[in-house]
# Entry
Amino acid sequence: MRGGVWSKRLFDAALCRSHTLTPARPGFNDIFPSFDDMRRLVKDPVAYHYQHADGPRATMILMSGLLRDFNFAATLDGRAEPFSTQMYLPMPDGRTTLANFFSPLVNNMEQMFLTGKTPYPLERTLLTTGLTAAGVDSLYAGQTRINTPHLAIRYQPSAKSTFWRT
# Structure
């Protein structure tokens, strides 16, 4: 962040959505942590930074010790303030006793087996898995840049929501 690889403004916009942000200092639970606070609270931070072939850049930041939820922020054309949201994924020791993130995937697999049709574009899974693999490969290779021409995949999102409902 200090080197300008990713935006502190977007980082703060994502943090403001957290329901589990660790107070940086006793008695001060409504302010953002300083760099020193983050160094003290986060023992092993990880950031995966990537750039799409058509230009947009993104950074995924893992800050265990600072928060336990999944938050997102982006700049959008025509909007002065960052867009931010929380992606609800209940994890143990937080708001649930079971990390139930494979049930939606299994449900979609079952729907595909029963109907013979994919319930959502499979390209999305190829992209997310490919980005994750490239990030892990980069970390293993000493944080080197990994080119991913195999991820030049285009798809049209489905109109139907893919949010899992029971």
